[in-house]
Specification:
209 residues; binds flavin mononucleotide
Length: 209
Amino acid sequence: MEFNDVVMKRTSIRKFKDDPIPLKDLKAMIKHAGMAPSVNNSQPWKFLAVTNKDKMKKMAEAVNLKIDEMMPDVESEKMKNVKKAVEHFSTFFVDAPAIIVVLNEPYEAVIDKALEKLELSHEEIDKLRNHPNIQTIGAAVENLLLSAVNLGYGGCWLTGPLVARDELESILKVKAPYRIAACVAVGKPFEKQKPKEKRPMDEIFKLVD
Ligand SMILES: Cc1cc2nc3c(=O)[nH]c(=O)nc-3n(C[C@H](O)[C@H](O)[C@H](O)COP(=O)(O)O)c2cc1C
């Protein structure tokens, strides 16, 4: 597919056909994700592909349980609807053919060492540099999503499920220092979906003179 078509066609897909994704396609998406730029070329990622339905159900149950704990005794109609939406947007991955769980490991940049001499903590340095490790993961996830579109799939980036991050890490046996950074649900779109309206050029771009 033409690069422009891939980018313009990508939109978040939350309803999928049941068709399984061949391993070679999953690997192609991960290959492209791993080509993303990363702070200091740290490549601080690993990608788990979950296709086992029992495991996906366990993950969704853990997320629902956590949402229940966070929003107990919801009584008003409005709050019930909010809770339902939160549940849906955090657990629809359960019906996807695959969920790719993106793991992130901490990194230490060369500049960290220099800045340590100024007695700044790792957290302060990280804040000063505006969280390069997290930005790095974003680059990988976007590559993954575009790769999915290029292969005829669709996907959705999710951080909603991370409310149950500890529980998900235990289900997926994620070992320190890795932590779950994001999830991506992927599969063939259930129906054709029009990309969302995006903000116009003159609103988002300014040529600095
Ligand atoms: C960091 C991040 C986290 C997101 N988390 C969720 C999520 O938990 N659940 C969900 O349904 N969509 C999630 N999304 C998808 C956004 O809702 C979606 O990208 C946005 O509405 C724009 O729509 P589009 O992707 O179709 O252009 C997330 C997107 C990003 C970038």
